[in-house]
Amino acid sequence: MAAFRSPTLLSLDDIPVPAVVGSFRVMKDCNSAYCSLYGYNKDELIGKSFGILYVEHHDYVSKWKNFTKSVSDDDIYLDERIMRRRDGSRFWCRVSGRRISSDPSSTDSLFCVESLRRPVDWEGRSLSGRQREICSLLVRGFSSQKIGEELGLSVRTIEDHRSRLLRQANVQNTAELIAWFCDERR
Question: pTM, whole model, 2 decimals?
Protein backbone atom coordinates (compact mmCIF):
# COMPACT_ATOMS: atom_id res chain seq x y z
CA MET A 1 0.00 0.00 0.00
CA ALA A 2 1.39 3.39 -0.99
CA ALA A 3 2.01 5.98 1.71
CA PHE A 4 -0.24 9.01 1.78
CA ARG A 5 1.28 12.02 0.04
CA SER A 6 0.11 15.40 1.19
CA PRO A 7 -0.21 17.96 -1.60
CA THR A 8 2.23 20.81 -1.24
CA LEU A 9 -0.18 23.47 -2.36
CA LEU A 10 -3.91 23.65 -1.91
CA SER A 11 -6.23 26.10 -3.55
CA LEU A 12 -8.89 27.90 -1.54
CA ASP A 13 -11.55 25.79 -3.27
CA ASP A 14 -9.93 22.69 -1.72
CA ILE A 15 -10.94 24.04 1.70
CA PRO A 16 -14.44 22.72 2.55
CA VAL A 17 -15.51 25.82 4.52
CA PRO A 18 -16.06 29.42 3.44
CA ALA A 19 -12.59 30.96 3.27
CA VAL A 20 -11.10 34.25 2.10
CA VAL A 21 -7.62 35.73 1.84
CA GLY A 22 -7.37 39.41 2.62
CA SER A 23 -4.77 42.10 2.97
CA PHE A 24 -5.20 45.60 4.37
CA ARG A 25 -9.00 45.14 4.66
CA VAL A 26 -9.37 44.09 1.02
CA MET A 27 -10.47 40.66 -0.23
CA LYS A 28 -7.73 39.20 -2.45
CA ASP A 29 -9.13 35.70 -3.09
CA CYS A 30 -11.97 33.53 -1.83
CA ASN A 31 -13.49 30.13 -2.43
CA SER A 32 -16.89 29.24 -3.85
CA ALA A 33 -18.22 28.38 -0.37
CA TYR A 34 -17.46 31.95 0.75
CA CYS A 35 -19.23 33.37 -2.31
CA SER A 36 -22.25 31.15 -1.67
CA LEU A 37 -22.47 32.14 1.99
CA TYR A 38 -22.62 35.84 1.13
CA GLY A 39 -24.54 35.51 -2.16
CA TYR A 40 -21.93 37.16 -4.38
CA ASN A 41 -20.00 36.08 -7.45
CA LYS A 42 -16.26 35.92 -6.90
CA ASP A 43 -15.55 38.86 -9.23
CA GLU A 44 -17.90 41.02 -7.13
CA LEU A 45 -15.78 40.41 -4.01
CA ILE A 46 -12.15 40.32 -5.15
CA GLY A 47 -10.51 43.71 -4.75
CA LYS A 48 -13.39 45.00 -2.59
CA SER A 49 -13.26 46.08 1.04
CA PHE A 50 -14.53 43.65 3.67
CA GLY A 51 -16.68 46.61 4.75
CA ILE A 52 -19.35 45.71 2.17
CA LEU A 53 -20.14 42.59 4.23
CA TYR A 54 -20.61 44.33 7.58
CA VAL A 55 -23.96 45.52 8.89
CA GLU A 56 -22.44 48.46 10.76
CA HIS A 57 -19.28 50.45 10.06
CA HIS A 58 -18.46 50.42 13.80
CA ASP A 59 -18.21 46.61 13.73
CA TYR A 60 -15.93 46.76 10.69
CA VAL A 61 -13.56 49.14 12.48
CA SER A 62 -13.59 47.38 15.86
CA LYS A 63 -13.12 43.87 14.42
CA TRP A 64 -10.14 45.09 12.39
CA LYS A 65 -8.54 46.60 15.51
CA ASN A 66 -9.06 43.34 17.41
CA PHE A 67 -7.63 41.32 14.54
CA THR A 68 -4.50 43.46 14.11
CA LYS A 69 -3.86 43.27 17.87
CA SER A 70 -4.24 39.50 17.79
CA VAL A 71 -2.07 38.81 14.73
CA SER A 72 0.74 40.96 16.08
CA ASP A 73 1.12 38.24 18.70
CA ASP A 74 0.95 35.46 16.04
CA ASP A 75 -2.28 34.22 17.55
CA ILE A 76 -5.22 32.71 15.78
CA TYR A 77 -8.02 35.27 15.73
CA LEU A 78 -11.56 34.21 16.64
CA ASP A 79 -14.77 36.16 17.06
CA GLU A 80 -18.49 35.99 16.43
CA ARG A 81 -20.36 38.71 14.58
CA ILE A 82 -23.37 39.60 12.49
CA MET A 83 -22.63 40.00 8.78
CA ARG A 84 -24.70 41.02 5.76
CA ARG A 85 -25.39 39.03 2.62
CA ARG A 86 -25.79 40.59 -0.80
CA ASP A 87 -29.59 40.47 -0.47
CA GLY A 88 -29.39 42.47 2.77
CA SER A 89 -30.22 39.58 5.08
CA ARG A 90 -28.14 39.35 8.21
CA PHE A 91 -26.66 36.30 9.90
CA TRP A 92 -24.42 35.37 12.80
CA CYS A 93 -21.08 33.80 12.01
CA ARG A 94 -17.89 32.72 13.71
CA VAL A 95 -14.73 33.97 12.04
CA SER A 96 -11.28 32.55 12.63
CA GLY A 97 -8.15 33.79 10.96
CA ARG A 98 -4.42 34.16 11.07
CA ARG A 99 -1.67 35.96 9.28
CA ILE A 100 -0.23 33.87 6.43
CA SER A 101 2.86 35.94 5.74
CA SER A 102 6.06 35.79 7.74
CA ASP A 103 6.61 39.49 7.03
CA PRO A 104 5.62 41.32 10.25
CA SER A 105 4.52 44.40 8.29
CA SER A 106 2.13 42.33 6.13
CA THR A 107 -1.55 41.87 6.89
CA ASP A 108 -1.96 38.99 4.41
CA SER A 109 -4.37 36.73 6.26
CA LEU A 110 -6.62 33.73 5.79
CA PHE A 111 -10.10 33.79 7.33
CA CYS A 112 -12.56 30.92 7.62
CA VAL A 113 -16.23 31.63 8.32
CA GLU A 114 -18.82 29.41 9.96
CA SER A 115 -22.47 30.39 9.76
CA LEU A 116 -24.19 30.08 13.15
CA ARG A 117 -27.82 29.18 13.63
CA ARG A 118 -28.47 32.05 15.97
CA PRO A 119 -31.25 34.59 15.59
CA VAL A 120 -30.29 38.14 14.71
CA ASP A 121 -33.43 39.72 16.16
CA TRP A 122 -34.96 39.39 19.58
CA GLU A 123 -38.77 39.49 19.46
CA GLY A 124 -38.64 41.87 16.53
CA ARG A 125 -35.95 44.10 18.06
CA SER A 126 -32.24 43.84 17.49
CA LEU A 127 -29.78 43.71 20.33
CA SER A 128 -27.44 46.67 20.46
CA GLY A 129 -23.92 46.20 19.17
CA ARG A 130 -22.55 46.21 22.72
CA GLN A 131 -25.14 43.64 23.85
CA ARG A 132 -24.19 41.39 20.92
CA GLU A 133 -20.49 41.70 21.78
CA ILE A 134 -21.08 40.84 25.43
CA CYS A 135 -23.37 37.88 24.70
CA SER A 136 -20.96 36.58 22.09
CA LEU A 137 -18.09 36.68 24.59
CA LEU A 138 -20.24 35.03 27.27
CA VAL A 139 -20.95 32.17 24.85
CA ARG A 140 -17.18 31.77 24.44
CA GLY A 141 -16.85 31.41 28.23
CA PHE A 142 -15.37 34.82 29.05
CA SER A 143 -15.77 36.14 32.60
CA SER A 144 -16.92 39.72 33.23
CA GLN A 145 -13.31 40.68 33.93
CA LYS A 146 -12.08 39.14 30.65
CA ILE A 147 -14.93 40.75 28.70
CA GLY A 148 -14.02 44.11 30.25
CA GLU A 149 -10.39 43.66 29.20
CA GLU A 150 -11.41 42.62 25.69
CA LEU A 151 -13.76 45.58 25.21
CA GLY A 152 -11.81 48.17 27.22
CA LEU A 153 -14.58 48.55 29.80
CA SER A 154 -14.72 48.21 33.58
CA VAL A 155 -16.01 45.04 35.21
CA ARG A 156 -18.81 47.14 36.75
CA THR A 157 -19.95 48.30 33.30
CA ILE A 158 -19.98 44.71 32.03
CA GLU A 159 -22.00 43.60 35.07
CA ASP A 160 -24.51 46.41 34.41
CA HIS A 161 -24.89 45.27 30.79
CA ARG A 162 -25.34 41.66 31.90
CA SER A 163 -28.04 42.66 34.39
CA ARG A 164 -29.96 44.56 31.71
CA LEU A 165 -29.62 41.61 29.33
CA LEU A 166 -30.97 39.22 31.99
CA ARG A 167 -34.01 41.47 32.46
CA GLN A 168 -34.55 41.90 28.69
CA ALA A 169 -34.37 38.16 28.08
CA ASN A 170 -36.47 37.46 31.18
CA VAL A 171 -34.00 34.88 32.46
CA GLN A 172 -32.49 34.28 35.89
CA ASN A 173 -28.79 33.63 35.29
CA THR A 174 -25.95 33.67 32.77
CA ALA A 175 -26.46 30.04 31.72
CA GLU A 176 -30.08 30.82 30.82
CA LEU A 177 -28.96 34.01 29.04
CA ILE A 178 -26.51 32.03 26.91
CA ALA A 179 -29.19 29.45 26.08
CA TRP A 180 -31.60 32.27 25.19
CA PHE A 181 -29.00 34.02 23.04
CA CYS A 182 -28.20 30.84 21.10
CA ASP A 183 -31.82 29.66 20.74
CA GLU A 184 -32.62 29.76 17.02
CA ARG A 185 -36.38 29.57 17.77
CA ARG A 186 -36.69 32.92 19.57
Answer: 0.72
